[in-house]
Amino acid sequence: MEPRYEPQLTLSDAAPVNASDRIEGRKKTPLAALAFYYHSYPQLLSYCDFSVVFSHYLTMIQKELELNRVEIQVSRKVLVVGTGLISQGVIHELIEMGYEVISTYAEDRAPEQGHLSDRPSSMPIHTDGVEVLGPTELVRFGGDPGRFNVSFKIDGARLLEKDVGAVILATDCELDEDLDAWKIECAKRVSSVSRLITALDAKDNGLFLEKTAPLTCVFVCGFTHSSNPYSLRKAINASLGLVSEANARVIFLMEHLEVADYGMERLTHKARDAGILFVRLSGTRPEIKSIGQGLRVSYIDEILGDEVQITPDLVVFEEAYRPPKGASQIADVLGIHLDRRGFFQGDNVYNRPIFTNRAGIWVVGSANGPISLEEGLKEAKAAALEVSKLLGDGTRRVEECRAGIIRRRCSACLTCFRVCPHGAVSFNDRRPIFSALACKGCGICVAECPMGVIQLHDFNDDELKAQIPVSSSALNLVAFTCQNSAFEAWSYASMMGLPLPAGLKVIRVPCAGRVGVDLVLSAFKAGVDGVMVLACHHESCKSVSGSLTAEERIKGIKGLLEKIGLEDERLIFAGIGPGMAFDFVKTAQEMEKTVLSLGKRRTYG
User: Which of 74, 77, 75 is nearest to 133 (CA)?
Assistant: First the structure.
């Protein structure tokens, strides 16, 4: 039988390589945990068998050492997309590190113009080492991290191609005054926060109606959109300016007081000390009507239950922060996810603060939501440091890609290209190429490949099937556990000596998305009485879509079980976090109880 994939090195061949160089990031966590428990809780040794847990981690180390290292050349050019001060901060950091920068933007604005803040005098605007393309449209994007190929459309027609090593999105979000939602006709007495700040800076008293008596001003925050700490900071600073410049009496009407940012509580206390009143309306929004040449604001006081009416001289609305222009089109071209609001950076805990689902592409500043200039510049520096890790001096020595393929049996169906959540698969000469820098080794492509010609070096089919217990008189349960979540929960439960089913066999997989139809049916064919596929929670899957893919696949397999005469209750999917040892035990015990009620089953096949 033709072998599907063979590792290029054995453990003995790789022994001279420094093991610490091969075990990075999360891979240190299990061993650190073992050392911690050995040192801190020696009494656990009296009733807890560490040998099983430890053997799993020794296998992990061995597989790490067996991977060969290859040297690849990468481009030292970085594409920075966007205008504004944070994009200038990115360019500044990259130039200081010695990288070449290609700067472009989708809107007809000079790169130094920004939406959110004024440029600090300490931030230089670089021209040396920066190729400015001007307003362009991204039309094609290919390659892999360190060797991307980007095609631009200039002046709506001419195509330009550039090779870059990395991409940083630093586009500014859009400010929407959102006045249409309130249907107000008296525009003279209405302003946005940004227009008020401009008027205060310019000493434009026309906005204040040139009143000699104290000005009454109402700030309206939220209600038609989600407020945020940054926009609230701007509004409070503007209100303090009104108090100082126009002796104004200020009332804030808001849904929530967003103070989850540095210095916000101090700022709100300062505003209260200045006489500014904050009114929270959780159930209703205020009513604002034009009365002749003026306005009337009314709302229900939630404590007294009475209606309050105000006739302000000025109503200031907090702007809504919308995704950058063209975000959807840019995301489609780059193959990155948007969040549910339409900003760059999909809803996943591992993306924060600057990462995307694709290696080599980062998002900084207001491209992923409203942010202060100070925080945006910190993200710019962090992104530049990530670029230096990826590109280095132009040469990278990396582990060979964990995914291998039998090319002569590949049908070029593009399934692996479509399902890879990391954009690690490209095509050359009608055959897939797996990027060593982009591939995370999740194995989703292995489980989805209809020809079965893709395998992972450290989680191939033969190794996983060999761990499936054979049928016996005792009850057999198999748990395919994601190594980033459920496997660590099992390790934790084992080290604490929690009661687990006697017939439970835990099989570690790189991601629940690696568990395909063949693996599950092989377990049942071997006589296993129940199978659990235990994954990350969908919002915290390191493989982005691995957990969701696994759950959908399990639903399909349940239908197959019914056709071959097995109860679908014998197969379950569950999300288990890495610290959820007790939940792991509960899930396993409930599965044992379910299988006992169904009874021992016969081997088929």
Answer: 77
CATH code of 77-173+324-395, in short, is 3.50.50.60
For residue 476, give every residue at least 6 positions away whose Cβ sits within 8 Å of its Cβ, in sequence order, or none: 469, 503, 505, 527, 528, 529, 530
Centre a 10 Å sphere on the Cβ of residue 304 and count the other Cβ atoms it contains. 8
Query: 403-456: which CATH number, 3.30.1360.120, 3.40.50.150, 3.40.50.300, 3.30.70.20?
Result: 3.30.70.20
Residue-wise pLDDT for 31-67, tens only, equals: 555 554 454 444 444 444 555 555 555 565 555 545 5
Calpha distance 351→513 (Å, rounded): 19
DSSP state of 180: G
The two domains 28-65+459-597 and 178-315 share their CATH topology (first three levels equal) = no
Q: What is the mean pLDDT of residues 207-216?
A: 65
The two structure tokens encoding residue 125: 């605007």
The Cα–Cα gap between 293 and 298 comes to: 17
List the helix and strand counts (H, then E) for the chain. Answer: 17, 27
Cβ-Cβ contacts under 8 Å for 559 (sequence gap 6 or more): 568
pLDDT, one tens digit per residue, over 318-357 is 998 999 888 999 999 999 999 999 999 888 888 888 999 9
H or E segment to which residue 375 belongs: helix 373-391
- In angstroms, how far is the first alpha carbon of the chain from the final one? 20
Question: Helix, strand, or coil here: 54?
Answer: helix
Question: Is-contact 338 344, C-beta < 8 A?
Answer: yes
pLDDT tens-digit map of 152-198:
998 777 889 999 999 999 998 888 887 878 877 666 788 899 889 88
User: 425-483, pLDDT tens digit by residue?
Assistant: 988 777 888 988 899 899 999 999 999 999 998 889 999 999 998 767 688 999 999 99
* SS3 state of residue 299: strand
Element (H or E) spanning 96, and its range? helix 85-96
Determine the CATH number of domain 178-315: 3.50.50.60
Using CA atoms of 339, 344, 347, 349 in order, give the dihedral in degrees to the nearest 10: -160
